[in-house]
Structure formats: C-alpha cells, structure tokens
Amino acid sequence: MLFGLGLGLLVAVGVYLRAPSAPTQTGRAMSTSASNAAKERAAPAKPPAAQPQPQPDAEADGKRFQFYDILPQFEVVVPRQDTHARSAAPRTPVQQPGRYLLQAGSFSAAAEADRLQATLALRGIESRVQQASVDGTVFYRVQIGPFDDLDALNRTRRQLLDAGIEPLPLKLRD
Fold it and tell me: pLDDT tens across 100-116, in order?
C-alpha cells in the first residue's frame, strides 16, 4: 500500500513539474525571442531594410480573447416578474353560505402530499390526502374540512395564507 502511495505521489510531482505554468511577461518575451531566433536561423539572410516589421502582439493591447468583444452583443435581458402576483385567487373571505372544503395542494407524488399534510399537522390543522385520477394521471390532493361554519373556514384559510399556503375553497354540492 505504501509503495502504491509513493508511486502515485511521484507521478503527481512529475506531472506538476512538467505542466506548463502561466506565462509571465519575461517568459513571453523569452519565448518570443527564442522563436524569432529559430526563424532567423531557418530563413535565408535578408537585408535589414527588407525584413517586415513585427506585428503588435494581441496580448500587448489587452485583447487576448475575442469573447470580451463578442459577449456584450449577445446579452439577453430577462424581464423581472412580479413575485407577489402568484395567484389570481382573491384573498377576500368566503361570504356565500354553504358547505366547503379547503384544498391546500395537489401533487403528482404521494410523498409531497404527505409532507404538506405533516406541515399542516404541525400547525394544528387536520387534513387528509385524497387520491384522484384525471385523464389517466394520478393526483394526491391535500384537503381540509368540510366546513359548515364560514367563520371557521375563513379562520383556517387565513392561517394557511399566513403560512404561505394558498388554499382553494371548494364549495360542496348539497
């Protein structure tokens, strides 16, 4: 085991030492002069006036990468959405007499419905999970009630709204 560890450490040190480091200004100047010297040796001698002027280095003017110029052209502005306009359901109390259920949520996973039912139980609200099939898809509805008393209905509804749960009042047929 120690031999394997030592061998791995030795390989890692070798890779670290052979890996190219970020070039510094002097490193770039040295590599540029070395490559120019190699080119001069390979090319036939020309008169000094006929040698082309060296091109300005792209790094010298601060534009090493082009995406700094291209990226602002493709900027996408995402419109801000109103986070408070989550539901179109009015928050006014129910005033029409009748028998009601409050549906706290409808989920495609039973675990999510059980989680909401547990959250409601911690707040002292008794609920039940009803399984319903709509167009072949199974939904798990978390329902509270039924309520005959509008005051109890509106109190429970206000308590759910304060907890961040927007219940749907469902009027039951008589």
Answer: 888 888 899 999 999 99
